[in-house]
Amino acid sequence: MVMHLPRPALCGLQMVTDVIAQRQGGGNAAFFNGIAAEWLQRVQDYDTHGGSPQHVPTWDAIHARRNSFLNLYLAPAVGSVQGPVLHAMRRQHGLNFCPACGEPGKPNTLDHYLPKTRYPHFCITPLNLFPMCDACQELKGTKTGDADNPRFFIHPYFDVFVANQVVELVIRPPFATPTFRLRTLAGLTMDQKALVDCHVRELQIEQRFADYFTGQYLRLLRNVSSLRASGQDVRVVLTSFRDAVAPAGVNVWDHVFYAATVADAGLMAYLENEPLPAFR
Questions:
Q1: Domain range holding 268?
Q2: Are 202 and 139 in contact (CB under 8 A)?
């Protein structure tokens, strides 16, 4: 349940170059000048390997000076190169769904794909930053992967396959009081399926989807009851609901819900023809 996002406009290499230039004459000039070449190379390696923790190692030599990097993110000075970029990425992304889970609502924080506590040199790298809801950020924490799955999370800039729907909803009868499950769509490669499964598990998306499903299904029954009473075509209207939200992302919860509804022949037969629960 993720969205593919366009890459940030600002080049990470240029950001590093400009930040180091702003440090000249300051107390940290010697430090940043000394690590400039390697910092640039590591940012380039991040881009080359799509931010994968399997191929982008930590930088142990800078651990003692970690705060020199973190302060660039946590307390950007007035007139700093990175300040306006961070502000724009936090406030001007125009999203009404979390790109990490697909839940409706404007994401109000930035996440570091590779966590800033372990990879402080990427704390202001635009490709390492993307909007995320609070629930996803708390669940993701500083996790990246393990021995069995070196990458837990889909990267919204590099994993372009999520521009297509990768998770589908299965609604199980009885349709008056249904249950549901989420499953990975067929057609993905083994590596893609494993990554989607990890992402959904680690962000507890199926568990979090439960409350949404309960409320959304009740609204569906109420809407269909009204549509039938007014003589409207139920399938046409529900298909329009699905298509209206598709431009926001085919993996956002609203699209996944209505795509599953319209595609389920048994459910549509129930909605179009069977007695519905009475609503006051």
A1: 165-273
A2: yes
